[in-house]
Fold this sequence. Notes:
With 206 residues, the chain is mostly helical. It has eight helices and two strands; from the N terminus they run ααααββαααα. The protein has helices at residues 21-24, 43-65, 69-89, 96-99, 126-141, 144-148, 151-171, 188-197; strands at 104-106, 111-114. The longest helix is centred in the first third of the chain and has 23 residues, at 43-65. The chain is globular.
Amino acid sequence: MWGRSTRHTPWCFLPCLAVVDPFLRRVVVLDMSADQLKTSHGFGDFVYWNLFIAIPFVTACIAISKSSTVGMIAYIIASILILSVGVFKSFCTHCPHYVQSKNTVKCMFLRGIPKCFTQKAGPYDLVEQVIVAISLIVWIVMPIYWLCLHPGLLAIYFVSLIVFGATVRRYECSRCIHFHCPANSVPEDVKSRSLDTNPHLTNHPT
């Protein structure tokens, strides 16, 4: 499934994508070879993906602001806290892009952010999986009440999230060097060849 074995994929990880699982399973995974893995992200990647995820985020802010400006500010602050502690600390610290960075992170979503959390090598433990899953669920569900007051914005919110997830799945997960990520869809034979020829692709400090 998804072009790879799911035997070691924690079921509780990234539950926010479960609703679109049947669709994502049909997304075509690009043919990959070891030299096609994406080992770094440029500034253009950072701008593109942040503009993409900004669509549902700004949509939620607009919906909340129609009822309360204070509520919108609280939502922004809560989002920063949830994503920085729940995702950045528990998820990103295992990623090769984090581990191999020197002082600041350079990935598709974060650039120039100090490495304020201890880097971790190896797969995620159960506690980290649960923390990330809950954090993502809370972040996605948090603005639903206000979005339901504006059906048009609600539609934009969910469509943009689905398209974002499908696009990341197709164009990033299929060539990502974060092999411990449950969403990684790089074929197992490509992983093996890439690690044999490029040991630096692991998320162990170099």
